[in-house]
Amino acid sequence: MKDLSTLWKAVLDKLELTVSNVSFIMWFRPIKLVDFVDNKTLILAANTTSAKNQLSRNYFEKLSSAVTDIFGTDIIIEILDPSEEIEYINLHGDKNDNKEVNVSKNPFNPKYTFDNFVVGDSNKFVYTACRAVAEHSGVKFNPLFIYGGSGLGKTHLLHAIGNYYKEYFPSLNVMYVTCEQFANDYIESLGSNSKNKAVLEFRTKYRNLDVLMVDDIQFISKKTSTQEEFFHTFNELYQNSKQIIITSDRPPKEIETLADRLRSRFTSGLIQDIQHPELETRIAILRKKCQIEKYSIDDDVIEFVAERISSNVRELEGMLAKIHFLANISNKDSAGMEEAYEAFNGQLEEEKNEGITADDIIDTVCSYFDISRQDIVGKRKSKDVAEPRMIAVYLINEILEIPLISIGKIFGGRDHTTIMHSRDKISDQLKTSHKMQGFISEIKKLLSQKDEK
Q: N vs C: which end of the chain shows fewer Cβ within 10 Å?
């Protein structure tokens, strides 16, 4: 049992690490904890109506993720404005003081499973390695070291392994911790009044395991005594054929001030990176998210989001949740492009481009190569039409930053993969072909002259 205020402080501590300092001070620090109903619903109060709207529209995904990580299970979150807070307290009383909460003993998010992990070219190898570790603990790929940027699925895979163990090997003693938790546990044991006993209890806790998962190991850098303790913990588990799984935002060789013997241990097993997902995988991830969360979102919105956000799965899913929320508060059955534009701050693509439009680019390319608009947007595949079409596609994408899905609609409903091929082919030719460089340069000059008129 833990008191609610302690858990909420842990949520805030986690949020402080994941959002900017300005955002944390403005939106998260002033949040008041009001109630926790039936260990299921967390009632929070913002200090202004504007703050409630900001938290609901722009930060809800981060807030929900932090609460889930600390409470150990999915929690319903309700955010009140000041007047709603007063009304709630008048109806229910102030129930926050000294309230104790049962925290789930299973630290693994039930939504993070292998079945819910979308596999693509960017992550298929690390996915295969994680499945092998789950099915053959301590036998294959020990230790398994996974690295990659934030929001690409490392934590999802750790939870997927953990959920697999809980389902198929429930007798295994499995522990999942962040590097920060490991360090804090160790520091706390050193500062205990009964230091020897506390350190012994710490070592018993971490060394009598079948599986140890440590997330974000890069934070162990510069912590000399913690590195020393982790080295001995690692050795104890490894020598007893216990599975060790580690994640980081960088490979072992790039973790600064990491002790050489720890670096050597980390590289003794399998090191596997997880890369940024390609467009098709991003679309699949969003469709899977809609299926899991029961969101009703139009296909063109999903493709639009997938094209606009390319580097971070968490950001992708957060934007999808925001679009769903905007449709929900408008009482719409399905989210469309109106909600998508609003979620991206209502900025249409052409607003960035000083009056140049896709039609301007197409007309200029047609005039330059002496072909008709019907030819360039039609189905003709002869070289005298195909090359200008690819050039137009390239320029529209480069100058206007219009998503590939939208460009495909402009060019007669072509598939986004065809549009991507056209863009990339011209991009590649520009690296070596003086002729192509001349085409692009001259067409851009014509467009700039057109825009000045």
A: C
